[in-house]
Amino acid sequence: MIAHLKGVLTAAGLDHAVIDVGGVGYLVGASTKTLASLGPIGTTAVLHTQMLVAEDFIRLVGFASPEERDWFGYLTAVQGVGARVALAILSVLSPDELSTAIARGDKAMVGRANGVGPKLAERIVRELKDKGTIAIGPAGPVGPLGGQAQDAVAALLNLGFRPAEASTAVRAAEDALGEAAPFDALVREALKRAAK
Question: Where is this region: Domain I (predicted)?
Fold first, then answer.
């Protein structure tokens, strides 16, 4: 499994890039947002990747961030959403925008992507409503977690919590302990709050 690539960007198209890593050129499919985040041809690029394997092909898909890669996995788990449609959605919406749209049940926002009709948008929103790393409260969406907080969310996910539950608990723990709280204290406090 190839988790990421770091090398020289040697070519880019509408839906792909070629990254030269040690003399080997990797053709990587990507969303337009990811392609736009890459520098000019000849500069060093880093892409987080997922390998798609089928009977008749092996394909690499690249992402600007681990969050975008996670959302690609969530999207392709929905019936009727293949790699092409998932990349179309991620070309229109960033991971934060997609998380907010799904948390709010905003089918129209998800349906802006090419190849996503009203029924598919509704299915995506319904099936993915517990995914993401933001909490929606009376004040609206809250931004993504950073640093130690993201690691704490990952720890809770590994313990079986849903993404929204883990995020909410860690956010509450961070509010109580402060942003400089050490990882282990943050996880302990988040576990207390998640158990309530």
Answer: 1-64
Task: Give the three-state DSSP class for 51.
Answer: strand
**Token pair 């449609």: residue:** 85
**Residues 149, 150, 155, 160: is their CA dihedral positive or negative?**
positive
Asked if residues 179 and 152 have their Cβ atoms less than 8 Å apart, the reply is no
Q: pTM for the whole thing? A: 0.66
Domain that holds residue 39: 4-63
**How many domains, the chain?**
3
Whether 61 contacts 83, CB under 8 Å: yes
Q: What backbone torsions phi and psi does residue 41 show, to the nearest 5 degrees?
A: -55, 135
98-125 pLDDT tens trace: 988 888 888 999 999 999 999 999 999 9
CB 50 within 8 A of CB 95: no
